[in-house]
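JOB MANIFEST
job_type = single_chain_structure
chain_count = 1
residues = 268
[input]
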Amino acid sequence: MSTIEQRTEERLPLEMAILPFLGSREEDYQPFQYIIQDFSQNGVRIAIPSWLQSREKLYRGDRVNLHLPYKFQGQSRNQGSVAWETWEDQAAAQVCGVALDKSFPETYPVFISLETRELVIGLENFEDEASLLLLVLKDIAMLKRGMLIYLEHLATYFTRVSEFSREEYALFRRMIINDIKTGMQKNHDYLSSLYSKALSLHSRNQDIMEILDIDELRQSVQSEIYVDLFSSVLSIETINMYLMALKTLEKKSYNNYNTLVMLYLNSL
């Protein structure tokens, strides 16, 4: 590798990917943690150990989003179908093979190269790794703020389209929606505070990494909204049209979280 390449790109062997990433099931948007075991040009083998705090059982044929760019011949893929699954007693984990089949544009120059079997962090357009880290932290806080604003607008709009009476919807809003907003506000406050603390460290990458708590970060990023709670109040059409927009923002947050995990792994 040339001197220029060494300055503009950092690479991490697959064996260093020891922390869980976030994925989600496409059908119900349910998030789950997973660990990368292996990958080929066409897919990824993941494990969902029983010790993970956020886990789901996957089935053959499930569509999943791994929220991490797996790059081959210039194309990044992060979505696919579960081709097979099995339970491994020794590892106490469900192991799945995911056949990746959907390309998407990368948000950040952080990806897994299926050709070199490495985790790659591109720094060509950044002053240093800390600059990239600060951008991701800022974006993840802004996404949560955007979700809060959008939910407030939806809560008012749902008053007009709810299948409940006005009195019943008022009770639903007070008991369910306000509880969701409280959790979302708490998570936004955490993410915003984390970004402010990181910014105050004046781009010292290792110092910023030391204030990151990956588990707390995951909890603050994961969904506060369960679509099933709204199924008795709203029509399927309304849910698909409006709540799915919030779920799209959540998926972007999972992409950001996995990017942060990659950067964290590179600092170890």
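[summary]
The helical segments are 3-8, 129-161, 166-200, 205-210, 214-221, 236-267.
The longest helix spans residues 166-200.
exit_status = 0
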